[in-house]
Design goal:
This protein has 12 helices and 14 strands. With 283 residues, the chain is an alpha+beta fold. The strands form 4 sheets. A 5-stranded antiparallel beta sheet has the order 10-11-14-13-12, with helices on one face. It has a 4-stranded mixed beta sheet with strand order 1-9-8-7. It has a 3-stranded mixed beta sheet with strand order 2-3-4. It is globular. The termini are far apart.
Length: 283
Amino acid sequence: MMLNIIEFSGLRVDDVMVPRVDIVAIDETDTMRDVLEKFIEANHSRMPVFRETLDGVTGMIHVKDYLRWMVARGAKRRRRKQDKPDIPEATEKSEKQGPGGLSIPATELSIPVKQAGLNRSVLFVPPSMPATDLLIRMQASHTHLAIVIDEYGGTEGLVSIEDLVEVIVGDISDEHDTDEDLDVKPVDANVYSADGRTDISTLEELLGVDLLSEEDEEEADTLAGLVFKLAGRVPTRGEIIRHQSGIEFEIVDSDPRRVKRLRIHVKDISRNPDTQTHQEQGS
């Protein structure tokens, strides 16, 4: 960890940011139902809110604030029904049952984000800002999301406090992270997607190839470690690293310390003879 701290002290914001193309954000005209679906799909605790384009970020919504809003709306509706039990049946049918029997009317979920009043402030920082300065500023302001802006005021990326902390302590897994995240998953014909933490042996067994020689087996255990060894450094997003077997590793997501996600192209590869024979006999 000491080495990570030393390395962190030399990083800039643009070294650790999530690039613009990977940002999941909320349009202020989205409905509260849209917001719920985005939180579920993206599995984020915070998402920026923008007006018209991503260059017009107005703040962020925290999932805790969203849940409090739902509970408050549901409780208010329930109290109203207790005071006026003759609410039309048609109205009740349009309600959604939530936790604890809370009823969320469809009309509530159709409210635009900009009318819900859930926006929190975010920090706006330049890409050249030292990462250590941003961490200190986040802690002092209790604002854990920063929008990275370029010289023209456009949105270049995003940094959360988790992004900064993970540079120091490594990946932070939560209860939503499962072993399934480390599977090699088919994307298209001869193309697979994998997490950088996936064991090399998982891909070797799937494709029937040896990716490391016996002498090199102690040098890498994961696909991220493999591409690091092949490239002699941490490759950047968009790079393609070729293995001698013919497999090409396309870097989908990475930061200065590690490869996070890869796309594996296996169109022209040389398989192990024993494995290939076994597969042909089984087909």
